[in-house]
Design brief:
single chain; alpha+beta; Glucose Permease (Domain IIA); 10-stranded antiparallel beta sheet; two-stranded antiparallel sheet; 12 strands
């Protein structure tokens, strides 16, 4: 009985209505009045919360606000953002080069170019005493002795200059080599496991001569470089350059695969050819 009386008292308490009146201060005339209880206030607040929740959910569902929620952004939209960012960096680099070029042209036209120190010191070079440039007796004796000692040295081989060694390459991506260069297995490049949708960099400056789609649906890009080098970048999800465009060393040209057919990205592949023959990229690039 005590529990029933307590519950009944609580129920009566929250249902008890209070009168709220608004009076005229001078005449004490009641202008507006209404009755409410604790239960009615709770119900009104709950209904207001539900209405606010429905309105916010509707706005998120039918407006672009949902793109600002963490993890809700579409994969394609995220890829477009990364590609646009890379293009923006490339354009910024081109603008900086153009500004430097225009600044140099402006300096030439205005005559503000500083005179080179080499041209300033030409007169001082003409004043050098020729007698001081002659070899001393000790140097002449050393030369003669060295020529006699090395005259019959058969271990000395003629030095053959290879112009391919004069080129400095950079690595196209960061990753681990999973399949090395092997001509006998007709594997003319390197297979590299790298992060999905990462930027592919040009290993050297050159011109884009060919792009296309592979049998697996991914894309490739081919660049011709100075000194007879050609580089091929395969298994790219998207390309950032077109045929005929000039690229700089280290400039982003494509993106690696994002998600393949087996829900795993296809490993990136790079090939390097020199004068029509495949060469091992690890001999020229430090991975």
């Amino acid at each position: 009985m005590a529990k029933k009386s307590r519950s009944k008292t609580f129920w009566n308490l929250i249902r008890f209505k209070y009168k709220l009146s608004i009076l005229n201060e001078k005449t004490l005339e009641e202008i507006f009045a209404f009755r409410l209880s604790i239960l009615s206030v709770f119900n009104a607040g709950f209904l207001l919360f539900i209405a606010t929740l429905l309105i916010v959910s509707t706005l998120i569902a039918i407006t672009p606000i949902k793109n600002f929620l963490p993890g809700y952004l579409d994969i394609n939209a995220r890829q477009d953002i990364v590609s646009n960012r890379l293009r923006l960096d490339s354009l910024q680099g081109v603008i900086n080069l153009q500004e430097r070029y225009l600044a140099q042209v402006k300096s030439v036209l205005s005559g503000d170019i500083k005179i080179d120190s080499l041209t300033t010191n030409i007169d001082s070079l003409n004043n050098i005493d020729p007698e001081k440039l002659k070899a001393s007796d000790e140097e002449l004796n050393y030369r003669k002795q060295y020529e006699e000692d090395e005259k019959y040295n058969l271990s000395i081989k003629p030095v053959v200059h290879d112009e391919s060694q004069d080129v400095a390459f950079i690595r196209p991506v960061k990753g681990v080599i999973t399949a090395p260069f092997n001509v006998t297995k007709k594997h003319f490049g390197l297979t590299i496991n790298t992060s999905p949708n990462s930027a592919v960099m040009a290993i050297l400056q050159g011109d884009v001569i060919l792009t296309g789609t592979q049998e697996n649906g991914l894309q490739f890009i081919q660049i011709i470089h100075p000194n007879g080098f050609v580089s091929i970048y395969k298994n790219c999800s998207s390309l950032l350059k077109k045929v005929g465009q000039t690229v700089r060393t280290g400039e982003a040209i494509a993106n690696t695969d994002n998600v393949g057919k087996n829900k795993k990205p296809t490993p990136f592949a790079v090939e390097l050819w020199y004068k029509g023959k495949p060469v091992n990229p690890t001999q020229y690039i430090v991975f």
